[in-house]
From TrEMBL:
It is found in: Cell membrane. It is a multi-pass membrane protein. The lineage of its organism: Bacteria, Bacillati, Actinomycetota, Actinomycetes, Mycobacteriales. InterPro entries: MetI-like, MetI-like_sf. Belongs to the binding-protein-dependent transport system permease family. This is Riboflavin transport system permease protein RibX. The chain crosses the membrane at residues 12-34, 77-95, 133-155, 231-258. SUPFAM superfamilies: MetI-like. The keyword NAD does not apply. PANTHER family: ABC TRANSPORTER PERMEASE PROTEIN MJ0413-RELATED, ALKANE SULFONATE ABC TRANSPORTER-RELATED, MEMBRANE SUBUNIT. One of its GO terms (cellular component) is plasma membrane.
């Protein structure tokens, strides 16, 4: 990778670090602006740091949080893969068949407008409370934004290449494989970057309302139990995990696009 590419990655990571610092500042200012929230309920970033690293039982607290985080990351990975695969296949179908896109795209957007929390009882009733509900709920959060972005990338393939493939007897499937998919790689990565935090949200909601495990269940149980240190620590850990996963996808995007000779969006 060139020096310019490395500098671009460094700027990207630096902007994420700055965003995280800004989140901590907003958190602290929010508690200052609404003093009635704390100190019984509200916890500052320093309080969370103490809970996780310097308190007498910090090791136990970290072990519990990290154990729940591992479950949530596994659940998020299931939803992310399910949603991205479904979005990619659906986008390819819609690009190859305009009637299918005109028929089913409005239905997809209509389903997107239904709040996920409202759909959870029905989803749980249909698929149960295991891995299936995690895949469905995480996939729903990932699917819709990824579908639009991947469709845009596939539809914007160079028409000249498609014409050449058609002249030489290639089918629509050949054009999709040889032209549309390679040109849509930036859109695939953009969809992945947007979907990673969404997959965590979907996993957390599924755990909260469906599986009763992971950080989502921790958030549900900590509030009525007045375990506010654990509650705020869980929120911070989810936030950090989202930023780190977003950064990993962003760095992978820069490396892959540089290898393919493409410019990052």
């Amino acid at each position: 990778m060139t020096a310019a590419g490395l500098w671009g990655i460094a700027r990207f990571l630096g902007s994420l670090a700055l965003s995280f610092v800004l989140i901590l500042v907003i958190w602290w200012l929010f508690l200052l602006a609404f003093p009635d929230i704390g100190p019984i309920i509200g916890r500052t970033p320093a309080d969370v740091f103490t809970y996780l690293f310097t308190a007498p039982d910090a090791a136990t607290n970290r072990a519990e949080i990290c154990g729940n985080l591992r479950i949530t990351l596994q659940d998020a990975a299931i939803g992310f893969v399910a949603g991205m695969v479904a979005a990619t296949l659906t986008a390819a179908l819609f690009v190859m068949s305009r009637p299918a896109a005109q028929t089913f795209m409005p239905l997809a957007m209509l389903l997107r407008s239904v709040p996920l929390v409202a759909m959870t009882p029905l989803i749980t009733l249909v698929v149960g409370r295991g891995v299936a509900v995690v895949a469905v709920m995480g996939g729903i959060v990932v699917f819709f934004p990824a579908l639009v972005m991947i469709m845009t990338g596939l539809a914007n393939a160079p028409k000249q290449i498609d014409d050449v493939i058609t002249v030489y007897g290639g089918s629509r499937l050949t054009a999709l494989h040889r032209s549309a998919i390679p040109s849509a790689v930036p859109s695939l990565f953009s969809a992945a970057k947007v979907s990673v935090p969404g997959a965590l949200v979907g996993a957390t909601v599924a755990e909260w309302l469906g599986t009763n495990r992971g950080l989502g269940a921790t958030l549900q149980q900590a509030l009525p139990a007045a375990a506010y240190d654990e509650l705020w620590a869980s929120v911070l850990v989810i936030t950090v995990a989202s930023i780190v996963l977003y950064a990993i996808v962003g760095v992978a995007e820069a490396l892959v696009l540089a290898q393919m000779g493409m410019q990052q969006n």
